[in-house]
Amino acid sequence: MKKISYLFTIVILGFASCKDENNSVSDIASNSETNHPNLILTKSGVEKIKSQLGSIPIFDKSLAKTKEEIDAEIALGIETPIPVDYSGGYTHVRHKRNMVALQKAGVLFQILDDEKYAKYVKDMLMQYEEMYKTLPLHPKTRSYARGKLFWQSLNDSNWLVYVSQAYDCVYNYLSEEERNKLETNLFKPFADHISIHSPQFYQRVHNHSTWGNAAVGMIGLVMNDQELIDRALYGIKGVDLDKTAKDDDGGFLNKDGKAGFLANIEEPFSPDGYYNEGPYYQRYAMYPFLIFAEGLHNVKPELKIFEYKEGVLLKSINALLNLSDADGDFFPLNDGQKGMSYYTSALVTAVDISYHFGTHDPGLLSIASAQDRVLLDDSGLAVALGIKNGKAEPFNKKSINLSDGPNGKQGGVAVLRNEEIELVFKYAAQGSSHGHYDKLSFSLYEDGEEVIQDYGLARFVNIEQKGGGNYLKENKTWAKQTIAHNTITQNEVSHFGGKYEVGSKYHSELYFYDDTNPHVQIVSAKEANAYPGTELHRTFAIINDEDFEKPFVVDIMNVNSESENQYDFPYYYFGQIMKTDFQYTVPSELKPLGKSFGYQHLWKEAEGKPLSDNAKFSWLNHGKFYTITTTSDATDNLILARIGAKDPEFNLRPEPAFIIRRHAKSTIFASVIESHGNYSPVSESAVNAYSSVSSLKVAYNGENYTAVKIEDAKGKIKMLLLANNGTSNKREHILEIGNEEYKWLGPYTYITIN
Amino acid sequence: MKKISYLFTIVILGFASCKDENNSVSDIASNSETNHPNLILTKSGVEKIKSQLGSIPIFDKSLAKTKEEIDAEIALGIETPIPVDYSGGYTHVRHKRNMVALQKAGVLFQILDDEKYAKYVKDMLMQYEEMYKTLPLHPKTRSYARGKLFWQSLNDSNWLVYVSQAYDCVYNYLSEEERNKLETNLFKPFADHISIHSPQFYQRVHNHSTWGNAAVGMIGLVMNDQELIDRALYGIKGVDLDKTAKDDDGGFLNKDGKAGFLANIEEPFSPDGYYNEGPYYQRYAMYPFLIFAEGLHNVKPELKIFEYKEGVLLKSINALLNLSDADGDFFPLNDGQKGMSYYTSALVTAVDISYHFGTHDPGLLSIASAQDRVLLDDSGLAVALGIKNGKAEPFNKKSINLSDGPNGKQGGVAVLRNEEIELVFKYAAQGSSHGHYDKLSFSLYEDGEEVIQDYGLARFVNIEQKGGGNYLKENKTWAKQTIAHNTITQNEVSHFGGKYEVGSKYHSELYFYDDTNPHVQIVSAKEANAYPGTELHRTFAIINDEDFEKPFVVDIMNVNSESENQYDFPYYYFGQIMKTDFQYTVPSELKPLGKSFGYQHLWKEAEGKPLSDNAKFSWLNHGKFYTITTTSDATDNLILARIGAKDPEFNLRPEPAFIIRRHAKSTIFASVIESHGNYSPVSESAVNAYSSVSSLKVAYNGENYTAVKIEDAKGKIKMLLLANNGTSNKREHILEIGNEEYKWLGPYTYITIN
User: Rounded to an integer, what distance in angstroms lies between the CA atom of residue A544 and that of residue B49?
Assistant: First the structure.
């Protein structure tokens, strides 16, 4: 590896010297000296901030808190220990804290004009310079691209993204000699290490690379080093990676040979701003995307970075905010840690930048208010002024459909919303190396609480005791597998056989999405490749019907296959079982449900058979009652399962599932999911504790149409009628069921019969 | 049954006619007409309230809410269905709602002078009169004392307690003829049914009887029927029950032959105000105790009911408030449903009455403010004025030790508190029929969150789907058993063999309690009868030591036995396992831990052996890290278990336990329980994720002394030294351990050695 790195260095230096021909080094230095800060803070911005200080509450508060934090750090003294630990360990945490302290101290120096902050930055940078110039690779060997300060180049890149900002803030405070020392011994070799010495990390389309690109680009902007800036924007020139090689997570290193910041915008974002790995990684990638974009906007306005790909960076912020529940927690699609929310600091950056460089959406101000802090820069000032001037409005999340894929042609993710009910439907592409095998899966929320969960990842991020804070092996054996999700598993094998290479070739297809009717929010998609020979077509509707207490969900999963298969169809609920209308038996000893593809991790707690053509399953969670009513076949097995088998280190959460198992060729699973009533342990009264669905029937299912009939507790009949081909809103459909003829326009209709 | 009731009636009527001699019926009527309302509302009180309306925010708000609620009820119309259902069913819920609506409408009539409320009360009462006069016993047969409106006389009594108040409010609005009709056909027979026709319910010391007594007494006060009042205060004259008979819950019907309201104050309350069944049932019993007391205070001031037994009724409110966690949730000792809190309406009554008739404790006003409502009577007015006048202060809960037993000589319950840490230690008597076999058990809380839980009851109160909302069979097979609690089970048999008759004979003994040292809150108690031949002595201390991040718990369980036994010692934690310093294996199939005494309900999820003389067990819950460090023996089995085996209807919560199993004669279990650090899924940073205890040793354990030595992560040595005999604070103790001599005064000392 070392030998290769050396060769890269030579090549790149060759380029660099060419670039410098038209601009002497002294020109750049004097030119840039007058202009610093210019990266995130700007000279004029700092003046505006200073003139408003004391009259912009949220900004003043953010500044005071930052000052308090950094004053405490300064009091504790500077520590730059020799790196030894994985994530969560002492040296890791210390260097991570240092990078933030440096960035913040730099900002404080600019805004408060207090030299102690500049000195702190300078002193710490000099300690890093002293250490770095002889620092070997980090001693921990688990990463595919080891860093020097941290065990992976990814964290080194994080560091440089922050420290570039600090350097910019103290640039003019430092002597030219000091700058040369830092640039020669620290920044330049640091940037080289994470790029030309780590091409397997840097030269890709991947969230890791985005951090690398931003790091190299931002230090390049401060140093006014065009070669670094170009390397950031376009990747390392002349480097091609093995297109079949894979990284730690099983993702291809560089299948298409694309690299650099612009490619990293181009590839993972759909035109709607959906990020292919899902919201958790988008949140993580967001900071380098936006902070580097802000730097580029300030230093290289001619690039018009915020207009790139029709303004996708700002669109992506809107998409990301819409991929959060009522509490602002991101939906844990693919590898996502639950609890991550728009209160994370990356989203403060995102919201402020989106407001300032976008359309001044007043909805963003209410999120910024809830975040209760702003960036200490021009964008934070804009937000603080907006809030101060009473411009904030609620950020109303409505149903949204987001395409996936660079051109928006690779399926997508839809979020249906009605009152407190939110349903997330995933019919996207694989989602890069962080994707799960969960075609047509869904999760359900009520007022920010999970009702039917997406498990998310199997990892305790940064908790060292749990596998060094990294991905646990159960992420592959459980969390990514199909049976861990609320969708069909056929014959106890995951979608695409659980093979990343296969899954990456395909995506589901939107059939239709319609949020125009306030009573029926609906989405429908098809998946033809997860199991060759089997077609899945799933439709979700949230129906707001005055005969029901709350909006309810209709879930129709149509399965078409020529061959007989076993279909397992789970609902991962939370809470305690209240009642089932089927009988089940519990075993005296628990055994796992299967041997592989995640089945080995499920205990079978009970098994039963339907007593009628409906099966009802009710539970209580957080004071609310829920019921699934599903059409059932006499031969169905109704399984109650719990996660936790074959889990020798208790890495999994022991949460339950209700699984419908059916042996069939083509079949249909039609279900209604209701939230109803409530129970308070204080008043001890149970209100509306029973389902309002008295029966559910598939009234028709054919190649062209599917119809389900719901009878409510008062005997009223409701029907949802779907056309399975032809989604034009103008097309008239006619369907005869029994002696009744139903006519409607467009792909669906919902009617009350009596 | 019917025949016996008839006999009782004859006898009682005999007494009644004697009593009436000095007071002609017409005298009473005219006398009382001028005085109504006089029970809870008083004529003068109503005038005061009216004069303040509009200027007492919390009262005005409570009134407006009540008005809104009752106006809606009136609009819906009156329904008094023929009773058919158990708790949670329609007729049960309807009659329960009616009783509250009647009471509130009565109050509204008095305060607002709007006749529509009086008419509503009259009309509904007349419907009840019409129905009741021919109403048979409730058709559901499960109760030991069936009611008529409800399946149990208990609920009938609830009804009459409320409806008496309504009757008082409309007394003067009704004609004498109407009153006679109601009293003759409804109130008198109603009172007779729950008392002389249901002696097995009425003639006891039990929370059920308290409701019965209050119901009879309150209607007696309104009707000015001295015979009913006497029956309420002293029980049914001349009735003796079989002293060996038992009720549905397994409690004795009437072991001592005591009965009546005064006996119900005398017996279950200790002089400190602890109620022997625990806070959940105290909360339930509180309302009839206090509302009847308020009525007696108003109508029969000469009884000085609030001074009875040295003011124990008001003391009991203070005790109850102190038996709640930081969020106001009552500790679920014995049969207690979690989540019941001082926000329940019975506690609004308790807090308002305690303030008004007690010492005007300003701390109560802050609880009333949090409750956000007051009683619509004189006491509510007093509270509203107190709050309005800015007198509210925080209700500071400190460590408290509450004796149990009528004379305070039957053990007790201690709550140790230090900063956010609360520890509840139960060394009480059996706790009547709702008691659990949990001698020397404890539970631990941090800032209102359960850390080490008491399971509480196995019941979904009023949720009809779950066993009619009544006690589930798992309450006996699991929740009451010793292994369900954080204390020692010997040889897989519950304390007292799980026999109520045996358990009721004994209680644990306080050894000492000391909350005078802010750094060490400590309690110690002994139990000699749970297992004949085995003595248990447990000491808990919460230690606030500057070398630790937060106060930590020391738990010392000394077991003395001549014979070899198996001791199982569980800690019911919550959350996910982070790390253990012992190795364990997980089985490929789960089996129950045992066959009976609750063991049949535990799955054995893992088993291991200590690797050293300490075993460490760490977990994460709600963003906080916790560690138990315990002294271990090489032959110990360390078991990880989960509740849920043999639970055919999923009535139990599948929660985990860490169980130390040891085979020994005499032995000591010494443990430190720490809460440390935190983890945020938003910042993804883990702070102080490791225990600060590097080793724990029993430095000395003999007949007279026990000493434990804690070495912290920085090598500092701490010692807790206990005298096992002699608790005088003036007694000097000298203990030599190795070459060191330790001297201290009083039963314990805590020292830092270096």
Answer: 45
With a CB cutoff of 8 Å and minimum separation 6, the contacts of A463 are A88, A469, B578, B620, B679, B686, B689
- Residue B650 has a CB neighbour count (10 Å cut-off) of 21
Record the pTM: 0.91
Active site residues of B: 281, 434
Query: Which of B462, B643, B653 to probe by mutation at the A interface, max A CB count within 10 Å?
Result: B462
User: Is the separation of the CB atoms in B449 and B356 below 8 Å?
Assistant: no
Closest residue, chain B, to A329 (C-alpha): B682
What number of CA atoms fall less than 13 Å from residue A435's CA on the CB side?
A: 33
**CA atoms within a 13 Å half-sphere pointing along the CA-CB vector of A145:** 25
Q: With both helix axes pointing from N to C terminus, report the angle between A378-388 and A362-371 in degrees, rounded to the nearest 10.
A: 100
**CA separation (Å) from B542 to B61, B331, B689?**
42, 18, 20
**Active-site residues of A: which are they?**
281, 434
Contact state of B592 with A592 under an 8 Å Cβ cutoff: no
Cβ-Cβ contacts under 8 Å for B535 (sequence gap 6 or more) = B526, B527, B528, B558, B559, B560, B561
Residues A342 and A328: their CA atoms lie apart, in Å, by 5
Both tokens of residue A163? 């420290």
DSSP structure class, residue B63: H
CA-CA distance, A640 to B644, in Å (whole number)?
13
Given a contact cutoff of 8 angstroms between Cβ atoms, the answer to whether A108 and A66 are in contact is yes
Contact A412, A510 (CB under 8 A): yes
Task: Give the number of C-alpha atoms closer than 13 A to the C-alpha of residue B489, restricted to the C-beta side.
Answer: 25
Distance from CA of B510 to the nearest CA of A (A): 32
Distance CA(B405)–CA(A118), nearest Å, equals: 69
pLDDT of residue B206: 86
Helix (H) or strand (E) holding A671: strand A667-676
Whole-number pLDDT of residue A35? 86
The dihedral formed by the CA atoms of A622, A627, A633 and A635, expressed in degrees to the nearest 10: 30
Least confident piece of the model among A32-36, A598-602, B409-413, B725-729: A32-36
- Supply the DSSP symbol for A185: I
Please answer yes or no on whether B88 and A646 come within 8 Å at the CB atom. no
Number of neighbours of residue A29 by Cβ within 10 angstroms? 15
Nearest to B262 by CA among B227, B308, B196: B308
Which chain A residue lies closest to B591 (C-alpha atoms)?
Answer: A589
Give the ipTM of the model, two decimals please.
0.90
Instruction: List the one residue out of B515, B506, B546, B514 whose CA is nearest residue B723.
Output: B514
- Which DSSP string do the residues of B370-404 spell out, in sequence order? HHT---SSHHHHHHHHHHHTT---------EEEE-
CA distance B229 to chain A (A): 30
User: In this structure, which amino acid lies at residue B651?
Assistant: N
pLDDT in tens, B218-265: 999 999 999 999 999 999 998 877 777 776 666 666 767 789 999 999
Partner residue facing A344 (CB), from B345, B620, B682: B682
C-alpha to C-alpha distance for A442 and A458, rounded to whole angstroms = 18
> CA-to-CA distance for A52 and A55, rounded, in angstroms?
6
* Alpha-carbon separation of residue A224 from A68, A70, B344, B391 (angstroms): 32, 28, 67, 65
The runs of H, that is alpha helices, within A323-437 are 345-357, 362-371, 378-388
Q: What are phi and psi of B216, to 5 degrees?
A: -65, -40
Q: Which of A464, A578, A681 sits opposite B466 (nearest CB)?
A: A578
Half-sphere exposure of B422 (CA within 13 A, CB side): 27
Q: In what order do the strands lie in the sheet with B693-701?
A: B693-701, B705-712, B717-723, B748-752
Buried b (16+ CB within 10 A) or exposed e, B380-393: bbbbbbbbbeebbe
